[in-house]
Amino acid sequence: MNKPVQPMSSLSLKLPKADRSIETYRLAASRTFPAKLEGPLNRIAFSAVHTVADPFADNDPWLSVAVDWDKTIAFREHVWDLGLGVAEAMDTAQRGMGLDWPTSLELITRSVGAAKRRNALVFSGAGTDHLAVEDAKNLDDVIRAYEEQLSAVEKVGGRIILMASRALAKLGRSADDYAKVYNRVLSQVREPVIIHWLGDMFDPALTGYWGTKDLDKAMDVAVAIINNNASKVDGVKVSLLDKQREIDMRRRLDKRIKMYTGDDFNYAELIAGDEQGFSHALLGIFDAIAPAASYALSRLAAGDEAGFHDVLGPTVPLSRHIFKAPTRFYKTGVVFMAYLNGHQDHFTMVGGQESTRSTLHLAELFRLADKAGLLANPELATQRMKTVLATRGIES
Fold it and tell me: In CATH, what number does 40-322 get?
């Protein structure tokens, strides 16, 4: 059951504010959520999960990757226990933003193996990130790069999330260019894939994807290509942070194709849907709020839409904070939540990206997580918040 616990009137800490003052913040009454799925779901929900860095590795984080494999797979086990699928080696895992292709493939191999042992759901990202954008000379280079990664993921038994390509964004000038690449690639996949349309707020190198900066025209191109390949497409993940565009696209897709919301600002209402349909989910924020997401989805499946919104609604302000501009730095907030909630023993990130958000940002994240009832162990979270503040020169 989801139930409030007694108010922790004695649990407080000092947090910085924007005016350079320090407030004594008293934690709110928290909530507890089941550690495992309660009941069936009527939405497919993927958590795009992060990679746990190895804090003891003697490497240069900006130049090389060191992964704590045990903790990384353990986090996926946590997500699977909650009835959520894993979207592996995506941008939440810092793919192409610290996580290189060889390490991504090892991650995919390990994750697919772990999923098979428990019959769990995992789809994995395949893209062109091993092809340096400056080395991509023509569309055939892009196609070959996609084919290499598709083959590697399928060889280890993985299902595909077809990621957007920076090289294609550089070279593609028209709808025909995008159709050539996607038609060729999709014709070869063994099983239907999830197409990922990632907006430039997540990755500026993807500006002008689908051959135009006009999003209305871009959607026309995307819908045409996807619908023409409907038998090869399981669904589409849209990450534009634009609720209405997602709804419009959902209504235009072939009825065989699912919409997976990637809107970390408006996911609650998009998943709930309306009389014309709903979105499934493939979300980075479901890494940070997995227990609440699982419980909320189980309430929705049970016909308790009020209970769904009661649980998931309070998480939206936290998500909007974590994903605020520059949105590409959202991974820092996701990993910080994993640290606060005990899924890893350190706040160290692939690529050294623990430095991409300010102390004030992390302090507000703590407040919002507490208000949403998302601190699994408030005492531990409070101590860890104090530790981070101390390392940043703030006495708490």
Answer: 3.20.20.70
Which two tokens mark 230? 């409907």
* Cβ contacts of 9 within 8 Å, gap of 6 or more: 26
The neighbouring-strand residues paired with 161 are: 125, 194
162: β partners: 126, 195
Distance CA 303, CA 18 (A): 42
Q: What angle do CA 45, 50, 56 make, to 5 degrees?
A: 155
Determine which helix (DSSP H) or strand (DSSP E) holds 220, and give its type and residue range: helix 215-228
**Going residue by residue through the chain (396 aa), what tens digit of pLDDT does each one get?**
444 444 445 799 999 999 999 999 999 977 899 999 988 999 999 999 999 999 999 999 999 999 999 999 999 999 999 999 999 999 999 999 999 999 999 999 999 999 999 999 999 999 999 999 999 999 999 999 999 999 999 999 999 999 999 999 999 999 999 999 999 999 999 999 999 999 999 999 999 999 999 999 999 999 999 999 999 999 999 999 999 999 999 999 999 999 999 999 999 999 999 999 999 999 999 999 999 999 999 999 999 999 999 999 999 999 999 999 999 999 999 999 999 999 999 999 999 999 999 999 999 999 999 999 999 999 999 999 999 999 999 987
Q: Collect all residues with Cβ–Cβ distance below 8 Å to 241 and sequence separation of at least 6.
A: 199, 201, 263, 264, 265, 266, 323, 327
Residue with tokens 């309430």: 299
Cα of 20 vs its chain's centroid, Å: 32
Q: Which helix (H) or strand (E) holds 81?
A: helix 69-81
Point out which residues pair with 236 in neighbouring strands: 195, 259
